[in-house]
Design a protein that fits this description.
By secondary structure, the protein is mainly α. It is built from five helices and no strands.
Length: 88
C-alpha cells in the first residue's frame, strides 16, 4: 500500500476500521490509490454520517422529544383534574 494512503488510514481510525471490516478495499487501494475519496464516501454512508442520514436522525430525535412533551403535558393535565365521586 502506498505510504500516503497508509498515512491517511492511520490518521483516520474510522476509515481504518472500515477497511478492516471490508477487506476488498485493501486490494482496491493497492491497485487504485486515487479511490481513497470513494472509500471515504462509502465509509460515511456506512457510519451514517451523510447529510440526509444526519437530518433523518435529528428528525427522529425531535419526534421523540415532542412525544415526551405531549405525554408530560397529558399527565400534568390529568393530575390537575379532580377525580369524580359516584353519587351515593
Amino acid at each position: 500500500m502506498r505510504r500516503d494512503v497508509y498515512m491517511q488510514l492511520t490518521n483516520k481510525p474510522e476509515l481504518r476500521q472500515f477497511v478492516r471490516q471490508h477487506p476488498h478495499w485493501y486490494r482496491k487501494l493497492n491497485r487504485e490509490p486515487h479511490t481513497i475519496s470513494t472509500l471515504e464516501q462509502e465509509a460515511n454512508q456506512f457510519y451514517g454520517k451523510t447529510f440526509p442520514q444526519r437530518i433523518e436522525r435529528l428528525q427522529g430525535n425531535l419526534n421523540l422529544a415532542m412525544m415526551m412533551i405531549q405525554m408530560l403535558q397529558s399527565t400534568v393535565t390529568n393530575q390537575g383534574q379532580q377525580p369524580t365521586q359516584p353519587d351515593s
